[in-house]
Design brief:
261 residues, alpha+beta, Fumarylacetoacetate hydrolase, domain 2, 33% strand, 2-oxo-3-hexenedioate decarboxylase/2-keto-4-pentenoate hydratase, Fumarylacetoacetase_C_sf
């Protein structure tokens, strides 16, 4: 067995058992983020049996507040799986996560492929591939013994905190407001705890999508029609306790809610 697969199996075992991930053994731990993405690809295949087929991606560290919080000065990507996609109003079990948090995001659903042969992609180019925008709650899970010391390459290998998402109703691209002016509010148990705008996501969420398309193209991978992409949080991660009710309001795109019982 090669080290990449062994590392992916160790991470998959922790994910399945909801056991906090310890630093990987020295011979398995990725030394670079490129190593981390190779492990992530192997992990995607291993987790599909448990969490369903991959249906898209999340992008982390796209806003200054999140880059400062995680001390990582650039975007990072992770996978979204079928069983982790929920409709607004869902009730989830707090105990199904190690340490669950939520983020306020603008998601996109693609209407056509973004193939590697079309790279490099610009924000304007990827915008034309978007079918619709959706208000979204990204559900993240701090499933690490200590994420601050485990290192960015291992976080990347483990889908960069990705756990699930909750999606509101789609808004067609032709009917959507200017994303720069979309104001997002994070409301927990009726109390606002954070706010931001689309401009906080790499200057525009389309820049985040272009980053992902180019990142995948560099590895010979495509974004495909029908896939969902979570473009990054407008607010700092909010960690939850059992019983919390979450509402994300994205002006012009609508609201999305969930409860963690």
């Amino acid at each position: 067995m090669n080290d990449t697969l062994a590392a992916a199996q160790a991470i998959a075992a922790a994910r399945r058992s909801r056991t906090p991930l310890k630093p990987l053994a020295a011979e398995l731990a990725p030394r670079t983020e490129a190593d981390g993405y190779r492990i992530q690809e192997a992990l995607r295949d291993l987790l599909a049996a448990d969490f369903g087929a991959p249906v898209g991606y999340k992008i982390g560290c796209t806003s200054a507040v999140m880059q400062h919080y995680l001390d990582i000065p650039h975007p990072c990507g992770g996978s979204v799986f079928t069983k982790g996609v929920h409709d607004s109003g869902v009730s989830l079990r707090h105990s199904d996560f190690v340490r669950v948090g939520v983020e306020c995001e603008i998601a996109v659903r693609l209407g056509r492929d973004l193939a590697p042969s079309q790279a490099p992609f610009t924000a304007d180019a990827v915008a034309h591939a978007i079918e619709s925008y959706l208000p979204a709650i990204e559900i993240v899970d701090d499933r690490y013994m200590d994420w601050q010391s485990i290192g960015a390459p291992t976080l990347v290998a483990d889908d960069f905190f990705a756990a699930a998402c909750v999606l509101g109703k789609p808004v067609a691209r032709s009917a959507a407001p200017d994303l720069l002016e979309v104001a997002g509010r994070a409301v927990i148990n009726g109390v606002e705890v954070g706010r931001g705008t689309g401009a906080d996501v790499l200057g525009h969420p389309h820049h985040a999508l272009a980053w992902l398309a180019n990142h995948l193209a560099a590895r010979g991978k495509s974004l495909r029609a029908g896939e969902i992409v979570l473009t990054g949080s407008l607010v700092k991660t909010i960690w939850l306790t059992a019983g919390d009710t979450v509402l994300m309001e994205l002006a012009g795109l609508g609201n999305v809610s969930a409860t963690f019982s």
